[in-house]
Design a protein that fits this description.
By secondary structure, this protein is α+β, with helices and mostly antiparallel strands. It is 34% helix and 18% strand.
Length: 377
């Protein structure tokens, strides 16, 4: 499968997912990265590929990290444009044995995101480390990573973050073709005043290039992938997972909350899902569904994955059944227990409804298999 074929399918695939992808002539030209960036990206993927199939050192542990992030909060809150600058910051944490004392790491941060960037009190951010700065620290091996930070400084919104963390952990139980995550408890300190603004849970997410490197692939940037362009099993797994968590806020063709991983020089393409805060499982008060969809609430499930042969759905349903106890177990382990009990109860009851659907052949066919996008499966 080639990128050229994906390009040729751009318009038809866009119609299938209900997300607008402009005609190729109207799209902005894809910029050719300069030599320095290409070299850096290649080095990053090569480094990740050394431990092929294994996540980086930082993400191998699920023990939450408690840290302080000092930055100019007023400036970072004002960075809402498309090309935000990198801002100087300092991360500090209490070292564990055999080290003692506080470790301070200089780094840079910048804002990211779309909805959260415009609507949150504190924006989601990228953290950019240098190899020398993190050498010998808990953060060794990290380069440029996402921090899903607090949106509003209250317990309800913190619950949304923890719920989304759990969904990422669940996806990792189902497939290695997913971003690794790790919980962090962050105290945000304004470097201008020295005052702490908030202490809230968040999580780090493995960067795309590192994910691609450990899987010996590359992240593809071209929009327009349709049902025939992506690996059928992984396509079904991604689609069923989005249905499992009640998420319709994604588009494979438009690369909206989806990344494409190309293996074998693009002959095999895997969709990678991320960003689940608009899902029914998170059930954020700000989440909504597009008016053109035949559902009224994010708690109403609607299958929005591509069509694949029916036997692929059967394999995916079997995987979900095999992993059910492990997924539910995530809500009883130390990280899962960070969620309030009522949220956990409500979430698992929501998952129960999913399992009733996939284990009822009639409902699985009508609600998932026959709902797929791109023609009859």
């Amino acid at each position: 499968m080639s990128i050229r074929r994906m390009v040729n399918r751009a318009m038809s695939a866009a119609v299938l997912v209900g997300a607008f992808v402009p005609s190729l002539s109207a799209q902005k030209p894809i910029k050719t990265p300069d030599a320095a960036k290409l070299a850096k990206d290649s080095a990053k993927m090569a480094k990740a590929a050394k431990d092929s199939g294994t996540v980086g050192r930082f993400f191998r542990s699920e023990t939450p990290v408690t840290m302080t992030l000092s930055l100019n909060i007023k400036r970072i809150k004002g960075d809402k444009g498309d090309n935000p600058p990198w801002r100087a910051a300092t991360l500090s944490y209490a070292a564990i044995a055999p080290d003692t004392g506080t470790v301070k790491i200089p780094l840079r941060v910048k804002t990211r995101g779309i909805w959260r960037l415009k609507n949150c009190e504190f924006p989601p951010i990228w953290l950019n480390f240098t190899g020398e700065a993190v050498k010998g620290t808990e953060f060794k091996g990290l380069d440029e990573v996402k921090l899903t930070s607090y949106c509003r400084n209250n317990d309800e919104y913190e619950g949304y973050i923890l719920s989304e963390l759990q969904l990422n952990r669940a996806l990792r139980l189902l497939t290695p073709i997913a971003h690794a995550v790790r919980a962090v408890k962050v105290t945000y300190v304004d470097s201008a005043s020295g005052k702490a603004e908030a202490t809230r849970w968040g999580f780090f997410q493995e960067e795309p290039l590192t994910l691609a490197g450990r899987l010996n692939g590359r992240i593809l940037k071209q929009q327009g992938a349709g049902p025939d362009d992506v690996d059928p099993y992984q396509s079904a797994l991604m689609g069923v997972f989005e249905y499992f968590v009640g998420n319709t806020d994604f588009s494979v063709a438009a690369l909206h909350n989806i990344e494409l991983l190309g293996l074998n020089n693009g002959m095999t393409v895997y969709p990678i899902a991320h960003d689940f805060d608009f899902s029914g499982a998170v059930n954020a008060r700000y989440a909504s569904v597009p008016p053109q969809l035949p559902i009224r609430s994010v708690r109403d499930r609607l299958y929005r994955g591509y069509c694949v042969p029916p036997e692929q759905f059967s394999k995916v349903f079997a995987l979900f059944n095999a992993k059910k106890d492990s997924i539910y177990g995530l809500y009883r382990d130390p990280v899962g227990k960070l969620l309030p009990e009522d949220v956990t109860k409500r979430t698992l009851e929501y998952f129960d409804d999913f399992y009733k659907t996939i284990n009822n052949p009639k409902n699985a066919k009508s609600d998932i298999i026959e709902r797929c996008l791109g023609g009859k499966a």
